[in-house]
Amino acid sequence: MFGEHGFFILACYGVSAFTLGALALWTVLDGRGVRRRLDELEARGVRRRSAGRDA
């Protein structure tokens, strides 16, 4: 199907799929960590300057 370069082609697809999956997982886990830190700061009363004084 891929000829004599089949292994190379499939290996490239495999590496690419693994890399994209790892980046997606890293993004999700990092987002959860950032959300957790923001919630902790908010619980301590730290507010963003952009939130204004009424928030």
UniProtKB/TrEMBL annotation:
Presence of the UniProt keyword Transmembrane in the record: yes
Protein's UniProt name: Heme exporter protein D
Keywords tagged on the record: Cell inner membrane, Cell membrane, Cytochrome c-type biogenesis, Membrane, Transmembrane, Transmembrane helix, Transport
Sections of the chain in a coiled coil: none
InterPro entries: Haem_export_protD_CcmD
Family membership noted in the UniProt record: Belongs to the CcmD/CycX/HelD family.
One cellular-component annotation, GO: plasma membrane
Topological relation to the membrane, as annotated: Single-pass membrane protein
Regions crossing the membrane: 6-29
A biological-process GO annotation: cytochrome complex assembly
Function: Required for the export of heme to the periplasm for the biogenesis of c-type cytochromes.
Stored Pfam families: CcmD (PF04995)
